[in-house]
Structure formats: structure tokens, C-alpha cells
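Hello again,

I reread your note about wanting to compare the complex against the isolated chains. To keep things tidy I'm splitting this into two emails, and this first one only covers the full assembly. Below are the input lines as submitted, including protein chains and any nucleic acid or small-molecule components. They are followed by the predicted structure of everything together. The single-chain runs will come separately.
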Amino acid sequence: GGIITQTPKFLIGQEGQKLTLKCQQNFNHDTMYWYRQDSGKGLRLIYYSITENDLQKGDLSEGYDASREKKSSFSLTVTSAQKNEMAVFLCASSMGGNNERLFFGHGTKLSVL
Amino acid sequence: GQQVQQSPASLVLQEGENAELQCNFSTSLNSMQWFYQRPGGSLVSLFYNPSGTKQSGRLTSTTVIKERRSSLHISSSQTTDSGTYLCAMGLSGSFNKLTFGAGTRLAVCP
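Full-complex prediction:
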């Protein structure tokens, strides 16, 4: 088995601040994902990466940057936090990318003051 | 418009009752997954079920592609089944992109 570790678990930011979320996986999976989960809504894909140094935009990429410098890690940056924003950011990975089974981390809960 | 519709949005059961959760798609798909999320917790993969029926313990997933639907049946519910159940579909021609439903919030009372 493997595990996906997201840091930090909780993130409190100020309006306009640049915030970085990190994700590590030891499944040796090729594909990694960042999703955003808002209360009462389904998960929305922000960015994904099919291999080291690859980046693909999802449906919600505006306002975010991502980086996949190693196969095992995938980071997400909120370029300018929005006031009163509150959401959970979930990192996931899969062996390949053809809609294979996804494994998720525990999430980073973001609150912007 | 929304491509994945889950129903019901919420459900309250007495322990021991059965539940049927539905997921309907507006377009053709090539994969379907069911996830479970405890409040404040991570998503746990329950089934990867592109078609047909799969069973794991008290849980059964059935996907009928032609009818563009998938269901999750929970038999003899327990209080520990409480949480949110999410379905996600992979669209045909949409490599790597799962589209999630909004989820069904299940509460099982003792």
C-alpha cells in the first residue's frame, strides 16, 4: 500500500497572499491531481500532471499555479488568496491517467481572512 | 449544464435499513468510480466500476452504461456508514478528467 501526504492540513491566509500547498505520494504513481472541494458542490479539477515536469490545466486553473518537479510530489500555489474564501484542496494520484482508480490525500483546509 | 447528477442529496436511515444511491450522467462515459468521505476526512475509493456489478461486503455497485447511470446499494446500514458518498465519471475522450457529482450525505441513526 501507499499513502498520500498533504501539508499543511490547515492553512489560514490573508487576502492577496500567495499560498503554497504540498502533496507527496509513495505509490510511485505517474499521474497526480489537485481538486478543490467547496461545501455542497462536487470536486473540481484545478491541475493535473501525467509525469514529472508535466502540467495540464483543469476546469478551475485560473488563479492557481502548479509544479511537478519530482514524480512523487505535486505542489499547488494560490496566486492571490480571495477574501472570505474557504475550501478544501484535495490531492490525488493514479497509476496511469486513463480514468484509472484515484487515491486521495486528507486534504488541506484553506481559510482566508 | 451539470453532467453528473446524484440523488438523493441527503438521506437519513435507521440502523439496519438499506439504501440505494443513484448517479446519472448526461453524456457517455468510459469509467465510473464511487468514493466515501467521512466529515472532514479524505475520500476513500469504494469501487472502480466502468460497467456491470461489483460487490464488496455490504456494498454493491451497478453501472449500466447504455442507461447512463450507476447505483450504490448499502445493505443493513450501520452508524459507521454515515458520511458523504460521491460518484465520479470519466468522460469518453476526456483523458484524466473525472467529473464528480455533488454527493449524497448519509446519516444512519442508531
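For quick reference: The two ends of chain B are 38 Å apart (CA to CA).

B.
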